[in-house]
Design a protein that fits this description.
Length: 149
Amino acid sequence: MKISSKGDYATRAMQDLALHYDKGPIQIEEIAKRQHLPVRYLEQILLGLKRAGFLESKRGVSGGYYLAKHPREVTVGAIIRATEGPILPIFCVGGGKREVCIEEPHCSLRDIWADVRDAVTRIVDHTTLDDLCQRIRVKRERQGLIYHI
């Protein structure tokens, strides 16, 4: 499974907002600078995440975006699905309407791709933004870095 730049940027922005969860609204420019992301593209992504219910926003001088839920309530899988769609390594293991493959009745690879889908789904659906924040903090401690908010 390949995550596009949209999914990558969305998860990085959400992770950044989770790291600053208790700081109030964060301006797009701050997120973009810390995460090395293009501001205009990030604006579109954050609007989509807001429409999907992951973010709230505040207008004005002290405005910006903030998480609509606590970081322990938001999974990487939910963010990926909101930006990328279903988690599928190949079309034939999707649950919804899809193309019919004439090889399907005797295809041994389909089972492997379903296993891949299930493994990826287990990981991303059990990894929260809070988990990512903990990983970042541990890595920074190991590197001897002081985390500045």
